[in-house]
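re the bet — no i am not wrong, look at it urself. input seq straight from the record:
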Amino acid sequence: MQQKGVMQIIEWDDLDKRKFYSLGVFMTLTTRASVYPASLIRTRLQVQKGKALYSGTIDAFCKIIRAEGVRGLYRGFMVNTLTLISGQAYITTYELVRKYVSQYSPSNTVKSVVAGGAASLVAQTITVPIDIVSQHLMMQGQGEHLTRFKAKPKRMLAASKRKLTFGQSRDITVQIFAADGFRGFYRGYVASLLTYIPNSALWWPFYHFYTEQLSLMAPTECPHLILQALAGPMAAATASTITNPMDVVRARVQVEGRSSLIETFKQLLAEEGVWAMTKGLSARIISSMPTSVLIVVGYETLKRLSLKDELVDSRHW
Protein backbone atom coordinates (compact mmCIF):
# COMPACT_ATOMS: atom_id res chain seq x y z
CA MET A 1 0.00 0.00 0.00
CA GLN A 2 1.32 3.44 -0.93
CA GLN A 3 2.29 5.78 1.90
CA LYS A 4 -0.16 8.62 2.59
CA GLY A 5 1.01 11.97 1.26
CA VAL A 6 3.26 10.39 -1.36
CA MET A 7 1.84 10.51 -4.89
CA GLN A 8 3.62 8.34 -7.42
CA ILE A 9 4.36 10.53 -10.44
CA ILE A 10 4.36 9.00 -13.92
CA GLU A 11 7.62 10.12 -15.52
CA TRP A 12 8.65 10.47 -19.18
CA ASP A 13 10.39 7.09 -19.39
CA ASP A 14 7.22 5.34 -18.23
CA LEU A 15 5.23 6.46 -21.28
CA ASP A 16 4.45 4.92 -24.66
CA LYS A 17 5.12 8.04 -26.77
CA ARG A 18 2.90 6.99 -29.69
CA LYS A 19 -0.15 6.76 -27.44
CA PHE A 20 0.88 9.89 -25.58
CA TYR A 21 0.94 12.20 -28.61
CA SER A 22 -2.09 10.82 -30.45
CA LEU A 23 -4.34 11.11 -27.38
CA GLY A 24 -2.73 14.41 -26.34
CA VAL A 25 -3.95 16.33 -29.41
CA PHE A 26 -7.57 15.39 -28.69
CA MET A 27 -7.23 16.33 -25.02
CA THR A 28 -5.72 19.74 -25.80
CA LEU A 29 -8.37 20.65 -28.39
CA THR A 30 -11.24 19.64 -26.09
CA THR A 31 -9.80 21.69 -23.22
CA ARG A 32 -9.31 24.82 -25.32
CA ALA A 33 -12.84 24.65 -26.74
CA SER A 34 -14.26 24.40 -23.22
CA VAL A 35 -12.52 27.43 -21.73
CA TYR A 36 -12.20 29.76 -24.75
CA PRO A 37 -15.30 31.89 -23.93
CA ALA A 38 -13.86 32.78 -20.51
CA SER A 39 -10.54 33.73 -22.13
CA LEU A 40 -12.36 36.02 -24.58
CA ILE A 41 -14.27 37.71 -21.75
CA ARG A 42 -11.07 38.13 -19.74
CA THR A 43 -9.33 39.82 -22.69
CA ARG A 44 -12.19 42.28 -23.26
CA LEU A 45 -12.35 43.15 -19.55
CA GLN A 46 -8.60 43.78 -19.39
CA VAL A 47 -8.48 45.98 -22.48
CA GLN A 48 -11.49 48.21 -21.78
CA LYS A 49 -10.94 51.58 -20.08
CA GLY A 50 -12.35 51.41 -16.58
CA LYS A 51 -15.83 49.88 -16.92
CA ALA A 52 -16.74 51.61 -20.15
CA LEU A 53 -18.32 48.54 -21.74
CA TYR A 54 -18.68 45.80 -19.14
CA SER A 55 -19.03 46.01 -15.37
CA GLY A 56 -17.78 42.50 -14.73
CA THR A 57 -17.54 38.92 -15.94
CA ILE A 58 -21.27 38.08 -15.78
CA ASP A 59 -22.23 41.42 -17.36
CA ALA A 60 -19.77 40.83 -20.21
CA PHE A 61 -21.12 37.32 -20.80
CA CYS A 62 -24.74 38.50 -20.95
CA LYS A 63 -24.01 41.47 -23.21
CA ILE A 64 -21.94 39.41 -25.66
CA ILE A 65 -24.66 36.77 -25.88
CA ARG A 66 -27.34 39.41 -26.50
CA ALA A 67 -25.37 41.44 -29.03
CA GLU A 68 -23.30 38.79 -30.81
CA GLY A 69 -24.82 35.45 -29.96
CA VAL A 70 -22.91 32.32 -28.91
CA ARG A 71 -20.58 32.77 -31.89
CA GLY A 72 -19.39 36.00 -30.28
CA LEU A 73 -17.86 33.96 -27.46
CA TYR A 74 -15.76 32.05 -29.99
CA ARG A 75 -14.33 34.92 -32.06
CA GLY A 76 -10.82 33.95 -33.12
CA PHE A 77 -11.19 30.35 -31.96
CA MET A 78 -10.27 28.78 -35.31
CA VAL A 79 -6.98 30.69 -35.32
CA ASN A 80 -6.43 29.79 -31.68
CA THR A 81 -6.62 26.06 -32.49
CA LEU A 82 -3.18 26.47 -34.07
CA THR A 83 -1.86 26.62 -30.50
CA LEU A 84 -2.29 22.84 -30.46
CA ILE A 85 1.30 22.87 -31.68
CA SER A 86 2.43 24.85 -28.67
CA GLY A 87 0.44 22.57 -26.40
CA GLN A 88 2.36 19.53 -27.58
CA ALA A 89 5.62 21.49 -27.37
CA TYR A 90 4.75 22.47 -23.79
CA ILE A 91 4.13 18.98 -22.45
CA THR A 92 7.16 17.56 -24.29
CA THR A 93 9.47 20.27 -22.93
CA TYR A 94 8.04 19.89 -19.43
CA GLU A 95 8.60 16.14 -19.30
CA LEU A 96 12.06 16.24 -20.90
CA VAL A 97 13.36 19.09 -18.71
CA ARG A 98 11.91 17.39 -15.64
CA LYS A 99 13.81 14.24 -16.57
CA TYR A 100 17.02 16.24 -17.13
CA VAL A 101 16.79 18.15 -13.83
CA SER A 102 16.20 14.91 -11.94
CA GLN A 103 19.84 14.04 -12.67
CA TYR A 104 20.91 16.98 -10.51
CA SER A 105 18.14 17.30 -7.91
CA PRO A 106 15.72 14.77 -6.40
CA SER A 107 13.44 17.59 -5.21
CA ASN A 108 10.06 17.46 -6.91
CA THR A 109 9.62 21.21 -6.31
CA VAL A 110 12.88 22.06 -8.09
CA LYS A 111 12.02 19.80 -11.01
CA SER A 112 8.52 21.30 -11.28
CA VAL A 113 9.66 24.94 -11.14
CA VAL A 114 12.44 24.57 -13.71
CA ALA A 115 10.46 22.33 -16.07
CA GLY A 116 7.32 24.47 -15.83
CA GLY A 117 9.23 27.66 -16.61
CA ALA A 118 11.15 26.10 -19.51
CA ALA A 119 7.98 24.60 -20.99
CA SER A 120 6.26 27.98 -20.90
CA LEU A 121 9.22 29.68 -22.61
CA VAL A 122 9.05 27.26 -25.54
CA ALA A 123 5.25 27.34 -25.76
CA GLN A 124 4.99 31.15 -25.65
CA THR A 125 7.53 31.54 -28.45
CA ILE A 126 5.11 29.56 -30.62
CA THR A 127 1.88 30.94 -29.14
CA VAL A 128 2.41 34.72 -29.06
CA PRO A 129 1.92 35.37 -32.82
CA ILE A 130 -1.24 33.25 -32.76
CA ASP A 131 -2.46 35.04 -29.63
CA ILE A 132 -1.86 38.44 -31.22
CA VAL A 133 -4.21 37.64 -34.11
CA SER A 134 -6.65 35.78 -31.87
CA GLN A 135 -6.90 38.65 -29.37
CA HIS A 136 -7.68 41.20 -32.09
CA LEU A 137 -10.40 38.85 -33.36
CA MET A 138 -11.74 38.56 -29.80
CA MET A 139 -12.15 42.34 -29.71
CA GLN A 140 -14.28 42.47 -32.87
CA GLY A 141 -17.99 43.08 -32.31
CA GLN A 142 -18.73 45.12 -29.16
CA GLY A 143 -15.06 45.65 -28.36
CA GLU A 144 -13.77 46.58 -31.81
CA HIS A 145 -13.40 50.27 -30.95
CA LEU A 146 -10.74 49.25 -28.40
CA THR A 147 -8.42 47.63 -30.93
CA ARG A 148 -6.28 49.17 -33.67
CA PHE A 149 -7.27 46.60 -36.28
CA LYS A 150 -10.75 45.83 -37.56
CA ALA A 151 -11.86 42.98 -39.79
CA LYS A 152 -13.45 44.12 -43.02
CA PRO A 153 -17.26 43.71 -43.07
CA LYS A 154 -18.40 40.71 -45.08
CA ARG A 155 -21.07 41.40 -47.65
CA MET A 156 -21.38 37.82 -48.79
CA LEU A 157 -23.52 36.55 -45.90
CA ALA A 158 -24.06 33.29 -47.70
CA ALA A 159 -20.37 32.44 -47.32
CA SER A 160 -19.62 29.51 -45.10
CA LYS A 161 -18.70 30.05 -41.44
CA ARG A 162 -15.28 28.59 -42.02
CA LYS A 163 -14.56 30.93 -44.91
CA LEU A 164 -15.85 33.90 -42.93
CA THR A 165 -13.68 33.07 -39.92
CA PHE A 166 -10.46 32.65 -41.84
CA GLY A 167 -11.30 35.69 -43.99
CA GLN A 168 -11.36 37.84 -40.85
CA SER A 169 -8.15 36.21 -39.64
CA ARG A 170 -6.45 37.04 -42.93
CA ASP A 171 -7.65 40.66 -42.73
CA ILE A 172 -6.23 41.09 -39.22
CA THR A 173 -2.96 39.34 -40.09
CA VAL A 174 -2.40 41.56 -43.14
CA GLN A 175 -3.18 44.73 -41.15
CA ILE A 176 -0.77 43.78 -38.35
CA PHE A 177 2.04 43.08 -40.82
CA ALA A 178 1.37 46.29 -42.77
CA ALA A 179 1.41 48.42 -39.61
CA ASP A 180 4.16 46.79 -37.56
CA GLY A 181 5.98 44.30 -39.76
CA PHE A 182 7.07 40.91 -38.42
CA ARG A 183 7.74 42.45 -35.00
CA GLY A 184 4.02 43.15 -34.70
CA PHE A 185 3.39 39.46 -34.21
CA TYR A 186 5.70 39.42 -31.19
CA ARG A 187 4.37 42.58 -29.57
CA GLY A 188 4.11 41.91 -25.86
CA TYR A 189 6.38 38.85 -26.11
CA VAL A 190 8.43 39.90 -23.08
CA ALA A 191 5.22 40.66 -21.16
CA SER A 192 3.90 37.22 -22.09
CA LEU A 193 7.07 35.58 -20.83
CA LEU A 194 6.90 37.61 -17.61
CA THR A 195 3.29 36.46 -17.17
CA TYR A 196 3.28 32.84 -18.24
CA ILE A 197 6.72 31.63 -17.18
CA PRO A 198 6.08 32.53 -13.51
CA ASN A 199 2.50 31.23 -13.80
CA SER A 200 3.67 27.88 -15.15
CA ALA A 201 6.64 27.71 -12.77
CA LEU A 202 4.29 28.34 -9.84
CA TRP A 203 1.41 26.13 -10.96
CA TRP A 204 3.31 22.84 -11.03
CA PRO A 205 4.91 22.98 -7.56
CA PHE A 206 1.66 24.27 -6.03
CA TYR A 207 -0.18 21.46 -7.81
CA HIS A 208 2.10 18.79 -6.36
CA PHE A 209 2.06 20.50 -2.94
CA TYR A 210 -1.75 20.62 -2.75
CA THR A 211 -1.99 17.05 -4.05
CA GLU A 212 0.28 15.77 -1.30
CA GLN A 213 -1.56 17.76 1.38
CA LEU A 214 -4.92 16.44 0.20
CA SER A 215 -3.48 12.93 0.15
CA LEU A 216 -2.53 13.28 3.81
CA MET A 217 -6.09 14.27 4.70
CA ALA A 218 -7.98 11.86 2.45
CA PRO A 219 -8.76 8.19 3.16
CA THR A 220 -6.10 5.83 1.82
CA GLU A 221 -8.53 4.26 -0.66
CA CYS A 222 -9.47 7.65 -2.17
CA PRO A 223 -8.70 7.67 -5.93
CA HIS A 224 -5.65 9.75 -6.73
CA LEU A 225 -7.40 11.31 -9.72
CA ILE A 226 -9.97 12.97 -7.44
CA LEU A 227 -7.24 14.49 -5.27
CA GLN A 228 -5.38 15.71 -8.34
CA ALA A 229 -8.58 17.20 -9.80
CA LEU A 230 -9.03 19.21 -6.59
CA ALA A 231 -5.37 20.25 -6.41
CA GLY A 232 -5.34 21.59 -9.99
CA PRO A 233 -7.81 24.48 -9.53
CA MET A 234 -6.31 25.32 -6.13
CA ALA A 235 -2.91 25.71 -7.79
CA ALA A 236 -4.47 27.68 -10.66
CA ALA A 237 -6.18 30.16 -8.34
CA THR A 238 -2.94 30.69 -6.42
CA ALA A 239 -0.77 31.19 -9.50
CA SER A 240 -3.36 33.37 -11.28
CA THR A 241 -3.70 35.73 -8.33
CA ILE A 242 0.06 36.20 -8.07
CA THR A 243 0.65 36.79 -11.79
CA ASN A 244 -2.51 38.73 -12.77
CA PRO A 245 -0.93 42.24 -12.71
CA MET A 246 1.49 41.28 -15.47
CA ASP A 247 -1.32 39.60 -17.41
CA VAL A 248 -3.23 42.92 -17.46
CA VAL A 249 -0.13 44.74 -18.74
CA ARG A 250 0.45 42.02 -21.36
CA ALA A 251 -3.11 42.33 -22.72
CA ARG A 252 -2.83 46.14 -23.00
CA VAL A 253 0.55 45.95 -24.74
CA GLN A 254 -0.63 43.40 -27.30
CA VAL A 255 -4.06 44.82 -28.14
CA GLU A 256 -3.32 48.56 -27.96
CA GLY A 257 0.05 48.27 -29.72
CA ARG A 258 2.13 49.67 -26.88
CA SER A 259 5.89 49.10 -26.77
CA SER A 260 6.88 49.82 -23.17
CA LEU A 261 5.90 47.54 -20.31
CA ILE A 262 6.94 50.06 -17.68
CA GLU A 263 5.08 52.98 -19.28
CA THR A 264 1.96 50.84 -19.71
CA PHE A 265 2.15 49.81 -16.06
CA LYS A 266 2.58 53.45 -14.92
CA GLN A 267 -0.28 54.67 -17.10
CA LEU A 268 -2.60 51.97 -15.76
CA LEU A 269 -1.82 52.97 -12.19
CA ALA A 270 -2.19 56.68 -12.94
CA GLU A 271 -5.49 56.39 -14.84
CA GLU A 272 -7.24 53.53 -13.05
CA GLY A 273 -5.42 53.03 -9.77
CA VAL A 274 -4.02 49.90 -8.18
CA TRP A 275 -7.29 48.05 -8.69
CA ALA A 276 -6.53 48.03 -12.42
CA MET A 277 -4.09 45.24 -11.61
CA THR A 278 -7.02 43.01 -10.61
CA LYS A 279 -8.85 43.51 -13.90
CA GLY A 280 -10.00 40.24 -15.39
CA LEU A 281 -8.86 38.33 -12.28
CA SER A 282 -12.27 36.82 -11.60
CA ALA A 283 -12.62 35.84 -15.28
CA ARG A 284 -9.09 34.47 -15.21
CA ILE A 285 -9.78 32.37 -12.11
CA ILE A 286 -13.15 31.28 -13.50
CA SER A 287 -11.41 30.14 -16.68
CA SER A 288 -8.25 28.77 -15.04
CA MET A 289 -9.96 26.67 -12.36
CA PRO A 290 -12.13 24.54 -14.66
CA THR A 291 -9.27 24.57 -17.15
CA SER A 292 -7.04 23.10 -14.48
CA VAL A 293 -9.61 20.42 -13.65
CA LEU A 294 -9.84 19.50 -17.33
CA ILE A 295 -6.08 19.65 -17.81
CA VAL A 296 -5.31 17.63 -14.68
CA VAL A 297 -7.95 14.97 -15.27
CA GLY A 298 -7.10 14.85 -18.96
CA TYR A 299 -3.33 14.92 -18.53
CA GLU A 300 -3.16 12.42 -15.67
CA THR A 301 -5.60 10.14 -17.51
CA LEU A 302 -3.58 10.61 -20.69
CA LYS A 303 -0.40 9.55 -18.91
CA ARG A 304 -2.09 6.51 -17.37
CA LEU A 305 -3.54 5.46 -20.74
CA SER A 306 -0.10 6.01 -22.30
CA LEU A 307 1.79 3.86 -19.80
CA LYS A 308 3.97 1.14 -21.20
CA ASP A 309 2.14 -2.17 -21.04
CA GLU A 310 4.40 -3.62 -18.37
CA LEU A 311 3.69 -0.69 -16.01
CA VAL A 312 -0.11 -0.52 -16.28
CA ASP A 313 -0.81 -2.56 -13.13
CA SER A 314 1.80 -0.71 -11.04
CA ARG A 315 -0.02 2.66 -10.90
CA HIS A 316 -2.89 3.48 -8.53
CA TRP A 317 -5.72 5.56 -10.03
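see?? Residues 131 and 225 are 31 Å apart (CA to CA). told u. also The radius of gyration is 21 Å. so pay up
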